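Problem: given the chain below (313 residues), write out its structure.
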Amino acid sequence: MDFTVVGLRVLREVAERGTFTAAAQALGYTQSAISRQVAGLEQATGVRLFDRYPGGVRLTTAGRTLLHHAVTALDALDAVDRELRGAEDDTGHVRLGFFPTAGAVLVARALATLRRQRPRIQVTTREASTPSLVRALRAGTLDLALLSSRPPHRSPDTDDPPLHTEPLLEDRLVLAVPAGGRFADRASVTAQHIAGETWIASPASTDEPRLGIWPGLPGRPRIHHATRDWLTKLHLVAAGTGVTTVPATLLSAIPPGVRLITIEDLPEERRRVSLVRLPGPTTPPADALVHVLRQHAADLAEYDHPPTGPAGR
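Solution.
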């Protein structure tokens, strides 16, 4: 089989990004160039590597097999390049992905501890949706990923080999409301109390469900503000423009002017934070990062993060 390095890099990028368009943007190619590279790989292997569907592409079984070996080959070529250039050894590098709200508390605290304990370990991070993080793990561009899941906590994908998933923390959703609003003196509300509230939520997408609205809330919520950035959502809450939902573990990072309260008569919404990676051995730097992530997840789990009123000072 006659493969090119460019073709293998395109294979990995398409597998990670999920669309030819996104892969082209990441690599600085045209979409037609991406299509030609994939067609060349499929001609060389004699098999279909991607299944096409309206929202993008997914690797076939043959495509996953080729990707596994392509990642190994590309990593080896990158190591040769570094050695020939006399670049500093990269064995202390760990690549971590995480869902948006994990960065402010769990990831930030873990990286601060790691820098004190093991300052020579380099960690690069990436925030993304669950499907994007899973594709990056499969493509070999992430070593570890923090994912959030709802009961019954199914595997984030069905590909082989199954991903190794380690539960780190059980969390719960709470409601973020303006500290000076009509719920200023309440520790909890009912669904009827918030039925007419304006909501601040993330835009809907095929890659991720809409976040920021209480699941199972009766009626059709009024969404006046849409943003993916959780800090922007909370500052909009502080400005009195609406309410939103956040994990209780964000209590220490809540900006002034925001209160966290619970909803009495709707089922409690639990979330699990898990550390996910490909099966197989891990490197010592990755093990060191895993250790501090476990440590800080355990610290967060020691208390249930009950709403305590105004978070501002």
